[in-house]
Amino acid sequence: MAKKKEDYDVVIIGAGSAGLTAGIYCGRARLNTLVIEQGLVGGLITSTQGLENYPGFPEGVGGEELMNLFYKQAKRFGCKFKLTGVKEVELTGMDKIVHTFRNEYHAKSVIIATGVKPKPIGCDGEAELIGKGISFCSTCDANNCIGKDVYVVGGGDSAVEEAMYLTKFANKVTLIHRRDQLRAAKSIQERAFECKCLDFIWDSVVKSIGGTDCVTSMVIENVKTKEQRTILPGEGTKDFIVFPYVGLTPKTQIFQGQVEMDQGFIKANEKMETSCPGVYVAGDVRTKTLRQVVTAASDGAIAAVEAENYILTR
Question: Is the keyword Cell inner membrane in the record (predicted)?
Answer without folding.
Answer: no
